Design the sequence.
């Protein structure tokens, strides 16, 4: 289904959950609405579902105005954050619900449910009640139940939030493949950027009831268009006085500067010879993170974060290190820029690569 | 969500760990006090009711309970409950539904108002109706003109009982429906279910045990209500006497054996209610785990 929303507005008392949002979603795409909690992303999803009525604006499904249609008539499937499975119904009855309220024939229902049970890998659990299922199984039932009436649009509200990390990863891959196979237009809400970046064809970054930026995940990650997106995506942190950093002395002082750990190289004393392009720093903290070390370094009175591989010689707190910034994300006069480390022309110094 | 409940240790079968237990003397003292209190306040009066009822023999007992006035009182009590319980079930459902599934102005006021019948004395509740519908009441002349009698008649008894038992069903359902939220209803709506379908197939099955429990409590109070009904009934024997009123009349006439005999019917009704309540509670428990 092709979805267009124009000037959507919704407030709850003083809180403006959705402030004049325009968006367009193309047929068959998997869309992630990503934002911090309280940003209004769930409200946007519920507006699309018809579970909330907008105070202003219009929603079109395939060119047809649906703003005033109740959820029953929108041909959608909705998966709730805590699944909202019917607790007094078995798995079979849960999945069959959407069909049986539409008064479909018994054989048709049985066939469709069997199909979905197969598709979602729930075989053998048809007669269980929701409380007899694991979190992952419940999620699958919720998914099968939403798909049963063959909706044109699937809406998922934080679909993996209630699952543990391992099951979450598994189901994520499963869901992406499943949606691809069914070819269904899907919108999901998440506060987990990793989930959005990994899963979505296109991401809408939501902040304070507005769409800050939309685009394919790679583009959002590489070129954030607003300071909010820059600080929200990646493990970004902000820096002051960028011109004091080696290789960036030409940068104007009036912008907001963001750095991600992958922009920063941290070298143990003696690892590089060409020290004049490096900033001197002192390690203040080292955190083991499984697949790498996160290093916290003080450079010129500012905290800087970077990572080091487990294969490299380990650093200790208090150790003197050389820090090189490869690039900075700068917002000057509201314009986003990615600034590369520029060693002055004429000096034949290049950024040394670690050997 | 509820699956964790079964993993908790069952309080009835779990031995209290030693470091949490009191010395034996303290334990027995506390248990003794509790039992003594229970015996004095609950068991003894119940035994007295039956002892007094049968003191003059089975024949007198039977005569007292099969006397036309007693039978008419029983009939009136059962009829009143049969009208009041379904009506208050409906009201309670509607009120709880409105207050948990919708947001509107003045909701808190409504929640407080529902408790009003619990907060004021039943005698005052009865008096309200006398002041409204009595001969000298606000609507008195109007009712007289159309020859419809409310006070000192059956409609008054039903009204007073309705008022007094109003909160039971709503009170039982409100917290239940509040914790359940409206996610399941929303899910049903997103799958195309109409309002009726949502109510019958999702909401009602989820609250049925709570609803039944509220109805049982409502019924118990409807049958036992004395104060409010006493004010509006007029104590006309064979006509507007409910069982509790009949007990009082007999007692005031020094017919102790008969009075206790009729009282034993009420006790019996209470027992039936308790048994049903017990069964419902057990069902409720196994369903919600």
Sequence:
């Amino acid at each position: 289904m092709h979805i267009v929303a124009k000037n959507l507005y919704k407030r709850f008392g003083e809180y403006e959950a959705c402030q004049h949002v325009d968006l367009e979603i193309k047929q068959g795409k998997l869309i992630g609405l990503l934002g911090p909690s309280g940003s209004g992303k769930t409200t946007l999803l519920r507006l699309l579902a018809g579970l909330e009525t907008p105070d202003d604006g219009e929603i079109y499904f395939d060119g047809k105005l649906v703003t005033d249609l109740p959820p029953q008539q929108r041909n959608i499937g909705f998966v709730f954050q805590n699944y909202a499975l019917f607790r007094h119904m078995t798995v079979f009855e849960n999945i069959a619900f959407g069909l049986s309220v539409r008064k479909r024939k018994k054989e048709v229902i049985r066939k469709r449910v069997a199909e979905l049970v197969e598709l979602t890998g729930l075989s053998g659990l048809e007669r269980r009640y929701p409380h007899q299922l694991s979190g992952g199984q419940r999620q699958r039932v919720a998914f099968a139940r939403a798909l049963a009436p063959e909706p044109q649009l699937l809406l998922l509200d934080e679909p993996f939030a209630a699952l543990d990390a391992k099951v979450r990863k598994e189901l994520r891959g499963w869901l992406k493949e499943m949606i691809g196979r069914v070819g269904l237009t899907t919108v999901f809400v998440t506060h987990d950027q990793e989930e959005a970046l990994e899963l979505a064809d296109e991401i809408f970054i939501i902040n304070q009831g507005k769409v800050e930026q939309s685009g394919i995940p790679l583009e959002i990650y590489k070129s954030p268009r607003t300071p909010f997106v820059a600080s929200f995506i990646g493990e970004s942190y902000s820096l002051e006085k960028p011109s004091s950093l080696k290789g960036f002395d030409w940068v104007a002082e009036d912008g907001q500067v963001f750095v991600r750990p992958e922009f920063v190289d941290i070298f143990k004393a003696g690892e590089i010879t060409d020290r004049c392009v490096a900033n001197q720093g002192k390690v203040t903290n080292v955190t083991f993170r499984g697949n790498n070390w996160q290093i916290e370094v003080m450079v010129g009175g500012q905290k800087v974060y970077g990572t080091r591989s487990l294969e490299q010689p380990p650093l200790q707190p208090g150790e003197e290190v050389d820090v090189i910034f490869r690039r900075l994300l700068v917002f000057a006069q509201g314009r986003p820029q990615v600034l590369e480390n520029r060693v002055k022309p004429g000096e034949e110094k290049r950024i040394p690569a670690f050997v | 969500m509820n699956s964790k409940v079964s993993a908790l240790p069952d309080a009835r079968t779990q031995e209290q760990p030693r470091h949490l237990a009191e010395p034996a003397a303290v334990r027995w003292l506390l248990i003794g006090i509790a039992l003594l209190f229970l015996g004095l306040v609950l068991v003894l009066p119940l035994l007295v009711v039956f002892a007094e009822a049968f003191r003059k023999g089975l024949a007198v007992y039977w005569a007292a309970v099969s006397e036309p006035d007693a039978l008419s009182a029983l009939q009136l009590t059962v009829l009143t409950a049969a009208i009041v319980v379904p009506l208050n079930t409906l009201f309670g459902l509607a009120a709880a539904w409105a207050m948990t599934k919708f947001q509107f102005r003045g909701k808190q006021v409504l929640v407080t108002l529902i408790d009003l019948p619990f907060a004021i004395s039943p005698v005052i509740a009865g008096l309200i109706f006398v002041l409204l519908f009595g001969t000298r009441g606000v609507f008195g002349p109007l009712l007289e003109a159309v020859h419809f009698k409310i006070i000192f008649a059956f409609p008054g008894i039903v009204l007073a009982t309705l008022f007094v038992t109003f909160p039971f069903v709503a009170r039982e359902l409100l917290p239940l429906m509040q914790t359940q939220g409206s996610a399941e209803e929303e899910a049903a709506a997103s799958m195309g279910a109409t309002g009726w379908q949502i109510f019958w197939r999702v909401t009602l099955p989820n609250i049925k045990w709570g609803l039944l429990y509220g109805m049982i409590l409502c019924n118990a109070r409807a049958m036992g209500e004395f104060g409010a009904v006493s004010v509006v009934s007029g104590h006309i024997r064979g006509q507007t006497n409910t069982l509790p009123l009949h007990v009082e009349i007999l007692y005031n006439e020094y017919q102790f054996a008969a009075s206790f005999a009729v009282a034993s019917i009420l006790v019996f009704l209470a027992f039936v209610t308790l048994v049903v309540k017990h069964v419902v509670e057990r069902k409720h428990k196994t369903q919600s785990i």
